[in-house]
Specification:
It contains twelve helices and five strands. By secondary structure, it is α/β, with parallel strands linked by helices.
């Protein structure tokens, strides 16, 4: 699950607790232990909002994650709580609505308590005729649907990138750099030696993920900050006959790769900053508008102004 905090549970020596079955059991156990306190808060809150997201686990089983946002009269704060991780035989609108209804029924709630529905904006969620949103509004017309703003920003960035053919090739190069430097302890040491010799920051190259195009920002930032030592490493590997390094060498030394790296490092830094603001726990709409305008101005200025 990527949780380093459970390492102290490794009492069996060879037990890693990373298998998808034990991971699911842990999630359900956590949900069960928190359920009683959550049910009290749900009853106290005059209205609630439902947030859902589809995902798949390592065994490619469909799962639906359900969260709830509520108002706590005791703390006078809005709170977001994990509710359930539900295995889905089908991830269609009818099945998702049933999963939501089941969780409401378990906690003695109804659709009348729900005023908001948040999702990733997929057609199964927001379809105006038979999507989850339409089905929920049929049960309670007061429900307002919201497409996650951070996800919309991610989609906008991804679709903008898709319109530029070289960026697809660029991402493949970045993945190749990660694969070449991260799967061998000897190569990791060779990278660190180059960084030390050229006094570059001691950084490990990052992986990028298809489902989150903005994850490219961390990967590109590392490449930009360690370009001299990266080129030295690739030169050395190519000289030693490494076929992967020989293939990457010409591409990394090209003007197009270098220019794209520096441009994206600047552009994605601005976009990632905005994404973090969108994901703030206590979001302020006045700040969001000012931040959005500032980010647009910053990106537009890059057309005529040299980057950092």
């Amino acid at each position: 699950m990527g949780c380093s905090d459970i390492s102290h549970l490794n009492l069996g020596g060879n037990a890693s607790y990373t298998h998808h079955t034990i991971a699911k059991e842990m999630v359900h156990s956590i949900a069960s232990s928190l359920s009683d306190d959550l049910n009290v808060k749900l009853k106290e809150s005059p209205y609630i909002s439902i947030i859902v997201d589809e995902t798949t686990d390592i065994s490619v089983e469909s799962l639906l994650t359900i969260y709830v946002m509520l108002y706590c009269p005791r703390s006078h704060q809005f709170e977001t709580h994990f509710v359930a991780l539900t295995e889905m035989q089908k991830c269609n609108a009818a099945s998702i609505k049933k999963a939501i209804r089941d969780q409401l029924n378990i906690r003695g709630l109804s659709y009348e308590n729900v005023i908001g529905f948040g999702s990733d904006g997929a057609s199964v969620m927001t379809g105006s005729i038979s999507g989850v949103e339409a089905r929920l509004k049929a049960a309670n017309p007061k429900i307002q649907s919201v497409h996650c703003s951070a996800h919309r920003l991610n989609l906008a960035s991804s679709q903008a990138a898709d319109s530029i053919p070289y960026l697809q090739r660029y991402q493949r190069i970045v993945r190749s750099i990660y694969n070449m430097t991260s799967h061998s302890s000897q190569k990791k040491q060779a990278v660190q030696l180059c960084q030390q010799l050229l006094q570059d920051p001691k950084l490990q190259f990052k992986c990028i993920h298809d489902i989150r195009w903005l994850s490219l920002e961390a990967a590109i930032s590392t490449i930009q900050r360690t370009l001299p030592s990266l080129m030295m490493f690739i030169e050395n590997q190519a000289a030693d006959g490494n076929p992967e390094a020989i293939g990457i060498k010409k591409q990394v030394n090209s003007f197009k790769f270098l220019a794209t790296t520096h441009f994206l490092a600047d552009a994605l830094k601005a976009i990632s900053r905005l994404s973090i603001i969108f994901q703030a726990r206590n979001i302020n709409f006045a700040i969001v508008k000012a931040s959005l305008d500032a980010s647009i101005a910053e990106l537009e200025a890059m057309v005529t102004t040299d980057g950092a």
